[in-house]
């Protein structure tokens, strides 16, 4: 389905990003796995290679614009082009607004929102030149409905939606699409921090009655980046078991 | 390559980037009105010139580069400095 396609997935070291990397690789795409932690980048790249796909491990902090630009350069050098960019890297620094430190705000906004900008700017140029490309930004339902204790995270994820729509309009004329996916509560290290009480309360508001699996998000990414998504741009696809309707 | 003039290189980039015929790329030709460029094309063109000639073109200069002739003059000027 994605034979000869070249993909970059940020935050590919674990959780949703790792699932996206292997899902794209399973369809034949070469995948550059970006993670801040070198060991995680390497592990995901090995999983991609184990599926018979070409892979590249890049230990990069997406918040670092210069490093992001070099990473995109490294992918172009290795594979010659970029067809798919998945901006997935994200962090949380939860806290109630009155107690939220500047550093907590900045870290979350810089990684989650500016990180997407840092990778999209250098990657989109080749897509425009080749008149094709797919960008998928991993937002969150929290960016749509908010969540107490996550003003920074919600702002960054809502920001990604505006970013997605602006970029979609800029590049549509060149055959490049840009969409966002808003996952609900997905079983990852990020949501492992929730306690039992929060967990059962959340399950009560998820019509499908379970937390999502990283694979549920990876399938949605595949849908958007494969031929199936060619007429979809500027959209937010909510993948949350029906939590937000 | 080395013996191509700056003017020839500029015209080649325009032909390639905008997909127009070489005859259309006259000195007076305006990128948007005569050569059918849109805003994204003009940004791409400026970036292509920057790469080819190893120069930086600030946005306030780029805005003034509306014809083939102005680009050639601008880049010649930069090359002399």
Description of the structure:
The complex is a heterodimer of chains A (245) and B (81). Chain A is of the alpha/beta class and 245 residues long. Chain A is built from eight helices and seven strands, in the order βαβαβαβαβααβααβ. Chain A has helices at 15-26, 38-50, 65-79, 102-130, 142-145, 151-171, 196-204, 214-225, and strands spanning 6-10, 30-35, 55-59, 84-87, 133-138, 176-183, 236-239. In chain A, helix 4 (102-130) links the parallel strand 4 (84-87) and strand 5. The two termini of chain A are 31 Å apart. Chain B has one domain: ACP-like (Non-ribosomal Peptide Synthetase Peptidyl Carrier Protein, Chain A), CATH 1.10.1200.10. In chain B, helix 1 runs antiparallel to helix 2 and helix 1 (6-18) packs across helix 4 (68-80). Chain B is globular. In chain B, 17% of the residues are buried. Classes of the chains: A alpha/beta (245), B mainly alpha (81). Chains A and B meet through helix 4 of A and helix 2 of B.
């Amino acid at each position: 389905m994605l034979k000869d396609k070249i993909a970059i997935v940020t935050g590919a070291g674990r959780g949703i990003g790792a699932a996206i990397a292997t899902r794209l690789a399973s369809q034949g795409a070469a995948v550059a796995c970006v993670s801040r932690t070198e060991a995680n980048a390497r592990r995901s790249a090995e999983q991609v290679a184990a599926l018979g796909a070409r892979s590249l491990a890049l230990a990069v902090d997406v918040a670092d614009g210069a490093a992001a630009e070099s990473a995109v350069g490294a992918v172009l050098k290795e594979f010659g082009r970029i067809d798919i960019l998945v901006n997935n890297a994200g962090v949380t620094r939860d806290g109630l607004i009155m107690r939220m430190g500047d550093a907590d705000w900045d870290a979350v906004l810089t990684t989650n929102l500016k990180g997407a900008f840092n990778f999209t700017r250098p990657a989109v140029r080749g897509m425009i030149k080749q008149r094709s490309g797919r960008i998928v930004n991993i937002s969150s339902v929290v960016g749509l409905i908010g969540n107490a204790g996550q003003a920074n995270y919600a702002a960054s994820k809502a920001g990604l939606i505006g970013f997605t729509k602006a970029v979609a309009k800029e590049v549509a004329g060149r055959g490049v699409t840009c969409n966002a996916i808003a996952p609900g509560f997905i079983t990852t290290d990020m949501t492992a921090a929730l306690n039992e009480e929060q967990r059962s309360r959340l399950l009560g508001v998820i019509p499908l009655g379970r937390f999502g699996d990283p694979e549920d998000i990876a399938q949605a990414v595949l849908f958007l980046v494969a031929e199936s998504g060619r007429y979809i741009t500027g959209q937010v696809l909510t993948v949350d078991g029906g939590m937000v309707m | 390559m080395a013996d191509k003039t700056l003017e020839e290189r500029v015209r080649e980039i325009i032909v390639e980037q905008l997909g127009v015929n070489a005859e259309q790329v006259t000195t007076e030709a305006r990128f948007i009105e005569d050569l059918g460029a849109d805003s994204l094309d003009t940004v791409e063109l400026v970036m292509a010139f920057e790469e080819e000639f190893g120069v930086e073109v600030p946005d306030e200069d780029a805005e003034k580069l509306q014809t083939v002739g102005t680009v050639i003059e601008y880049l010649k000027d930069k090359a002399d400095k």
